[in-house]
Design brief:
about 450 residues; alpha/beta; Aspartate Aminotransferase, domain 1; Aspartate Aminotransferase, domain 2; 2 domains; 4-stranded mixed β-sheet; 16 helices; about 15% strand; binds pyridoxal-5'-phosphate
Amino acid sequence: MALDRNAPNDLNAFWMPFTANRQFKKAPRMLVGAKDMHYTTSDGRQVLDGTAGLWCCNAGHCRPKITEAIAKQAAELDYAPAFQMGHPIAFELANRIIEIAPMGMEHVFYTNSGSESVETALKLAIAYHRARGEGARTRLIGRERGYHGVNFGGISVGGIVNNRKVFGTLLAGVDHLPHTHLPALNAFTKGQPEHGANLADELERIVALHGAETIAAVIVEPMAGSTGVLLPPKGYLEKLRAITKKHGILLIFDEVITGFGRLGSAFASQHFNVLPDMMTTAKGLTNGVIPMGAVLTTPDVHDAFMNGPEHMIELFHGYTYSGNPIASAAGIATLEVYKEEGLFERAAELAPYWEEALHSLKGLPHVIDIRNMGLIGAVELEGIAGEPTKRAFNAFLKGFEKGIMIRTTGDIIAMSPPLIIEKSHIDTLIGTLADVLKTLD
Ligand SMILES: Cc1ncc(COP(=O)(O)O)c(C=O)c1O
């Protein structure tokens, strides 16, 4: 059988990321193909992709326009340095990103992942203030339960304990806002919760504690994804924007998940109508197909660096693969697919159907909360006493057996399907999940 070619005979060498390696290698779940809404497993089964891979394949899988653009570019200009050299398509992609970005975002700095976008934005924030003569502004403020990738800056401002606690002292000079999850007040809310905008006022307390003149930036996910889909309470992001502005603190939106249509707009910034100073992106930028990330900035941030002698490098930062030609080609093709197929609008149109389907799970065993927005949703389960994460992970395993791919974090099931999803797929995904929930211990 052709698929046998893909079956490795030794699983030991690959130390898998964010995986229970020993458990996985005893009973591997191998994906060997993908098309549109489905994965194919090594035993020839079709699995409906309820998570767009890892929140990234927003246009679905193996889209010809994207795969062809990659093949063409690989044959034409495979690699070109981006340090002191350029190639046209990296510039073209930057312009296309700016075209769909919120008004006010005008510059693009390329990275290769969400984690690198975060590190880049944090470094930019500190260097920006220094360039303007405010070198004491070095503190970074994140938020509890925030996920900003896995590098040292990102885990320092992040707020997920397992991602931080075994990695030493992290960055100095970091503080955290409280998270916005208030189940007692907001459980089973459809869309943005009513309660919790006041939690943004905690920033005033942090400013009073440290002094505004020591704080460089606040970074938050406009909608927290990886921690289990926590939505911003109504008015919360607006307050954060007002307080940061008042104190001369930069606001960074980490849009690695929310970027490229997930909430029904190109970016969450447009959805919530709040303009940050920088936005971090990755994932959907290339439909997840080729690693690429980008930090978007306002002219104010960018222009602060554009001084000194013209022959001098303005920012000593960048990656070997920043603006890689093949990634750029994938990015351009991806943005074209989004546009030609109206996928951001499609996400907005399908959101009410998605919301109703998701909330139909209310009342099933162990379900203690359901949250949704755009084409993203979470079902929170009551954990098994003494065995946190197990119940949701069992749901994931059973779901995979029954032909759906969901994601779990703690005892929360998260879903974020490709934006090409049809109503019939939503019915299958949620219907199968309902069956799974009914059989869980
Ligand atoms: C908000 C956010 N920031 C950063 C990252 C890290 O991205 P990557 O895994 O590409 O480094 C993620 C990944 O899920 C994310 O959700």
